[in-house]
Amino acid sequence: MNTLQHDKYDAVIFDLDGVITDTARYHYLAWMRLANTQGVHFDEEFNEQLKGIDRMGSLERILMAATRQYSLAEKLALAEEKNAQYVSLISNMTPDDLLPGAVQALDSCRAAGMKVGLASVSKNAFTVLDKLGIMDKFDYVVDAAKLARGKPDPEIFLKAACALDALPARCLGVEDAVAGVASIKAAGMTAVGVGERSVLAQADFVIPGLACFDLNNY
Ligand code: BG6
Ligand code: MG
Description:
Blueprint: H1 3-6, E1 11-14, H2 23-37, H3 44-50, H4 55-64, H5 72-90, H6 102-111, E2 115-118, H7 125-132, E3 140-141, H8 155-163, E4 171-175, H9 178-186, E5 190-194, E6 205-207
Parallel strand pairs: 1-2, 1-4, 2-3, 4-5, 5-6
Helix pairs in contact: 2-5, 4-5
Pfam family, one: Hydrolase
Family: Belongs to the HAD-like hydrolase superfamily. CbbY/CbbZ/Gph/YieH family.
GO molecular function, one term: magnesium ion binding
């Protein structure tokens, strides 16, 4: 390993859904079901814009494509319905649901002397981390319930950097969502996108998955 390159960062801050585990798929299925009940066409392309966007923000985007207006009470009920479906989909998750290379990527950061953070806007993040059995691999996990603004606002990554005592310029952010990469860049950090370069155009580096995560390359 090239220690000179590791000197560039003090902390690595990971997104959860779609990076460490494939819960992005469960969010997609739950939103698809909700959209269908409201007569809104929903597909992978629509879903791409929702990745990294918080629950109410995602719902608003779906309902914008509906033919009628919704009251706040109706919106809250629909958000609750989606979450119940999502919670049921994640109920049987185990450490087997970690994506390939996820544990190795987290461990490689610690081994290189860096702090490890988690920046997910999901209010279910603590439950998912617990089911995956990886809570102890993080030095700090942002509590999404305490955020004023979701991604693409930089708040979540800046909050993680501050808690990890790292300057934003010395942080690496790892994200699968367009909004998440925008959040990392707005925070003044280096972004590793997980997915496709054509989608994650703003990322500094793009890898297909954490199995390809290598600190020597960033
Ligand atoms: C993000 C997902 O991590 O969390 C989004 O990418 C999701 O798809 C958001 O909407 C909020 O999750 P939750 O669990 O609070 O509804
Ligand atoms: Mg994600």
